[in-house]
Structures are given as structure tokens and as C-alpha cells.
Amino acid sequence: VAPPLEKLYDWYSFKVLPKLGQWVAGDEASYRYLAESIRMHPAQEALKTMMQASGFGHVDYHNLSGGLVALHVGIKC
What is the per-residue pLDDT across 11-66, written as a single tens digit (0 to 9) for each? Predict the structure, then answer.
């Protein structure tokens, strides 16, 4: 996440998203877990290195939505 958006994204992830999950799906816990699991995902460079170590070539990533989302691309050689 781009530094200017970090605090807002954390607030949304841990305060708003679980409440929306409760309201829409009746399941606050799953949406809290979603926010927590996103934080455990490897950083962009770490995932790129993992992909390369797994045999992918020409690995790169592209930030989308101010870094809220990253698209990793690799070619299996």
C-alpha cells in the first residue's frame, strides 16, 4: 500500500470491512480473517523471488489502485 494510504487502508480493513461482512453476509469473523490474512501475504519483491525460485522466468509485478493490489506476472520456463 502506498504510504499515504496505509492508515486509511488499515482502518478500513479492520474497522469497516468486518462490519460490512456482518451486514452483507452475516459473518464478521471471516472478513476480519480476510484483513489479517492479507497482512501475512509475502511482500511484492519476496513473492517475485519465490516465483523465480519456483521456475518462473520474466517475473514482474505491477501496482494497481495505489498499491492496494499488485499483479504478479511470470512465464513458466
Answer: 999 999 999 999 999 999 999 999 999 889 999 999 999 999 999 999 999 999 87
| Res 19: pLDDT | 96
How far is residue 76's CA from residue 57's CA, in Å, rounded to a whole number? 6
* Residues in Cβ contact with 76 at an 8 Å cutoff, skipping those fewer than 6 apart: 55, 56, 57
Contact 70, 62 (CB under 8 A): yes
Which residues are bridge partners to 64 per DSSP? 69
User: Quick one: three-class SS letters along the chain?
Assistant: CCHHHHHHHHHHHHHHHHHHHHHHHCCHHHHHHHHHHHHHCCCHHHHHHHHHHCCEEEEEEEEEHHHCEEEEEEEEC
